[in-house]
Amino acid sequence: MKTAPALDVDGLLGDPRMRIIVCCGSGGVGKTTTAAALGLRAAELGRNVVVLTVDPARRLAQSMGLSELDNTPRPVVEYDNGGSLHAMMLDMKRTFDEIIEAHADPDRARQILTNPFYQSLSSSFAGTQEYMAMEKLGQLGRSDEWDLIVVDTPPSRSALDFLDAPERLGRFLDGRVLRLLVAPAKAGGRGAFKLLNVGIGMVTNIANKVIGAQVLKDIQTFVSAFDAMFGGFRERAEQTYKLLQAPGTAFLVVAAPEKDALREASYFVERLAEERMPLAGLVVNRVHRSPAADLSGARSTAAAEDLDRRGGHEVAAAVLRLHADRMRVATRERREQESFMSAHPTVPVAEVPAMPGDVHDLDGLREIGERLAS
C-alpha cells in the first residue's frame, strides 16, 4: 500500500501558534466526534480550548456529557496544567441579533429586530448560517479568552460555504433589484415616485403584485435601517476570511475509508487549495485493520472450508470466516485510500481505527484523541 505523510496531531494541537482548527467533511464520517476529540486532546495538552459546532445535531453536547449547547461557551472540563475545554453551538438568529444590538443605536436596532423581513432573513435565509458562522468565529478569534478554537462545520459540501458567505450576502443586500425596490423609500416615500423614472416605477409595481405591498414595505424599511451597518458586516467578514488564510489556522478534512466519503474529501482538499486555505491533513475515521493481517482473506476462507470438511471445528471455522470478511473490508478500504493518495500524495494522513461502539462520553472522546495522536 502506498504510504502518505503522517499527520502529527499532537504537534498540531500543542503548537501555541495554532489558534484555529476547522474540521470539514461530508455527513456520517465522524466529523463532530473528531472535532470534540481534538478539543479534549488539546485541553489535556494544556490549552484553553473552545469547540464551536455549526451542526445543529446534538451529538457534540451528548458526547461531552452536556444536556444542551447554545450560543455561549459552556465549560466541559478543566485540568491542573491550565488546560480547559468549553463547547458551544451556533445559534444563527441569536448571533445576528447580538450583532445588530452591538453595532446599531437602540432606536435603529429596535427597527431592525422587529422588522418582519429581518426576522425571516435572520432565521431561514440561505447563507445566513454560514455568514453567522464567520461572525461568531471572528468574535471568538478577536477574543483573548481562547488559546485554540476548533470549528465543527455542517455535514455536507456546504461546510465550506462560509468561505463564500460574505460575498453572497453582500451581493444580495447590495443587489440591483433590491436597491431598485428600496429606492422609493430612500427618496422620501410616496411623493418621491414623481422623481423616479418609469423603469423603477415598473419594477416596484411588479414587485407589489408578486410579493405584496406589505412585504415590499418591510424590505424597504429593513434595508434603509440596515444600510449604515452593512459596511461593517462586510469588513468583519473579510477580516475573518483573512484570518482563516493566515498562519495559525489549519483545516482538517475528515472522511471515512469509503469511495463517496473520500471523493468528497478530494473536493474539500481541492477547494481549500483554490481558496489558499492552509490544509493540515486528512483524518480517516473507522478504519478496519486486523492484528492477523499476514493471514489473507483467501487463505482464511480456505482454512475455514477445510475445517468444515473435517467436522467438529465450527467455532474455529466461524472465526476464520469473520477474519476473512474483515480482511475483505480492509482491502477495499486500502484501495480507496490509495486512490485518494494517488491524487493528493502530499496530504498528511491520520487513521483512526474503528471503535467497537458509538462514542457518547468523555472517555470515548479521550480514546479517539489517543488513536488520532498515535
Automatic annotation (TrEMBL):
**Pfam family of the protein (one):** ArsA_ATPase
Stored InterPro entries? ArsA/GET3_ATPase-like, ATPase_ArsA/GET3, P-loop_NTPase
Residues forming the ArsA/GET3 Anion-transporting ATPase-like domain are 18-288
Instruction: Write down the Gene3D superfamilies for this protein, in alphabetical order.
Output: P-loop containing nucleotide triphosphate hydrolases
The Gene Ontology terms for molecular function here are: ATP binding; ATP hydrolysis activity
Q: What is this protein called?
A: ArsA family ATPase
Query: Which species?
Result: Bailinhaonella thermotolerans
